[in-house]
């Protein structure tokens, strides 16, 4: 019988590896394992991310028919949230005052193209990028909107092609958010606008629920806190012009009389569950 080499059980030691996209540190503390995904916190800036980081090409293969039915059953709810968030951040007034309205608009991770359809009706030259083939095909066939079935990088748009680049609930799914921001920067016109929506890991719900927070799921590789997210944008040559957070406490957890003031407090203090940031290309 062979004798196994001595080992202690696996512990919660800090891990060396992938550099943090916010501060560049490669020292992380292991926090939680959730459905096989291992979440770590950066010791330099507190950024929350998975490690090891899955390869993007393989990650994209996760999204298939199931994602299409999820999108279809939530389509109108997601669209009205997106429209409200754009309103909150002053999108229409800003684009109108800068003469950008009706310009070229790219929606990355556009799902079934609901926002693109809406914008095209309002005069924008809007188009999308979507890695999930059945979902993109639905948009192309049922809505007649232009969608490239690929990642942003594979779509290979020209330099400074767009006045606005928008991505809602996308950046947290990516292996390399810095590469994504660099590509968004390249395809944006001078002083073009980047609008990103993503969960706020510095929000009230994230703090309350820890590993039970609804955004701690295997599909979310990076979970940004509001301050860290603004730092990431600035260090990639974007100037944040306006941001908002919303969502204080999940529906059904507390009574409406408690939920309403908590939601208002979260919104006013930047502790909402989801954030939208409108930035300008520098
Ligand atoms: Zn960091």
UniProtKB/TrEMBL annotation:
Annotated protein name in UniProt: Methyltransferase type 11
Gene Ontology terms: biological process: methylation
A Pfam match: Methyltransf_23
Keyword Ribosomal protein belongs to the record: no
DNA damage in keyword set: no
Keywords, alphabetical: Methyltransferase, Transferase
Organism: Sediminispirochaeta smaragdinae (strain DSM 11293 / JCM 15392 / SEBR 4228)
Gene Ontology molecular function terms on file: methyltransferase activity
PANTHER family the record matches: TRANS-ACONITATE 2-METHYLTRANSFERASE-RELATED
Source organism superkingdom: Bacteria
